[in-house]
Amino acid sequence: MSGSTHRTGRAFVLGLDGVPWRLIEQWCDEGVLPNFARLRDEGASGTLESTRPPTTPLAWPSIATGVWPDKHGIYGFQNLSRTYTHEMYTSHDVTQPTLWDLLSPAHVGNVPMTYPARELDEDGTMVTGMMTPSTDQDFTHPPDLQAEIESRVPDYEISLDYPEYADRLDDFEVAVDEMLANRREVMDIQFDRAGADWRLFFFVYTAPDRFQHLIWDMDRLLDHYRKLDAILGDVIEFTDRHDADLYVVSDHGFGSIDELVYINHVLEREGYLARREDEGTRGALASLGISRDRITDVLARVGISEELLVSTLPRTLVDSVAEQIPGDHALYDVNYEETTAFVHGAGNCYVNDTDRFEHGIVPPSEIDRVKTELVELFESVTDEQGDRVLTIADGDELFPTDDGSPDLVVNGVDGYDCRNAITDQLFGDTGTYAASHRSEGIILCRGPSIEPGATLRGARVVDVAPTLLHGIGEPVPKNVDGRVLFDAFDSAATPSQTKVERAPVTQPENGDEEGVDEDFTEVEDRLKGLGYME
């Protein structure tokens, strides 16, 4: 721990998953979000640029560590192995110290990618967030905190299976409201445990993201945001009582989508990706009209869920069965021995090179040539109006310190959302989804040293951690990619008048990784074996 007895500053990070700046700005101007408006007027605020791609598993670790994915180690929900199988990322894969590693006592609640719970120094607490398999698993530190949550919030859930509410939006709103209230109760429990002796609170509400994926109606959104505003009011009072800095941040923004783009279709159409032929068992099942969807529908009718299957069967059996079931598996529908490039995860494009992959066919000397061809190909993809629908970034430029990073990152422009399923069409209907991620989130901060009414320009997710640390008098790890946002501080305050102190980087202690794998593969996240999670 870098904290010491003479350092007394403290900070609270309130995370709001997927909140876009333009909605906050509009509703603050209209006077319908009084606490957000108060935070904007009494503190510093602006847009917050997300990671590339702008997704939860990349962005929250970047906010918590101050580094990009090539240094913190998380590129998505699932890591792609040399043998083209999925390995779920856990908190053990985060290789850069987080804010709660640097500050103690720390209290961490519902932050994505924190499962399994890490043991915190002193009297810290943690309630793990998104990617926690279920509340049947150990999801807190210390362990007795879980018993208290189960007693006070008996129907507490990590998240909602929101696609199930696609045709029941009224029920969905009720479920989101309940989730929000339960999460607020858990935050209260952690408040009670913290007392007056704490250095860091880091609590995330994922409800906005869940809500907006299905509902992008401004009246309904405003009603949801009013509830967030009420929570913010309680947090402002809490931070005022403890003379703490408050940072309200979102990992990315949000916006409506009109159409889906199937990126692997582009690669298959142009001969860069080869689809597996339906031969043997797979072909026989396909000829009988048996698909993944039909099988899971039948199992659901008799009470057998996908989660139960993947938590009960050994991994090798799950993988081998999945390989034989026809369906839109971006993982198993590829013939890698004849594939030059493929897309995995949230637009991560990989050249199938001989050094990286078991069945790679591209020599390392040809990677740059193939990448150039792929960039030209993706840039040529247009809609009916002739407008480009994809954005492309070079993985070597985004992630310069990691040779194992994606070769390219391909995402849709505003209005288009990308998918990895291997289909016979380039575009598809959005189905249950109304909106999806955008790169521009929010940052609002307020506290003893923050300049009232200041505007933050050019802030990025990696700037949050170094700014917070410097603001409360703590050193900043030497290798951070972010900068201290000095525009946030009052010119007469100590952070404005002191140089940034640098500290050596210490690797986080990750405990027993073997135990994590055993826990993680027994529940829903073993869906990697069936290829459901991209």
From TrEMBL:
Signal peptide: none
InterPro entries xref list: Alkaline_phosphatase_core_sf (IPR017850), Phosphodiest/P_Trfase (IPR002591)
A molecular-function term among this protein's GO annotations: hydrolase activity
Biased composition, class Acidic residues, residue ranges: 510-522
Region annotated Disordered, chain positions: 495-534
UniProt name for this protein: Type I phosphodiesterase/nucleotide pyrophosphatase
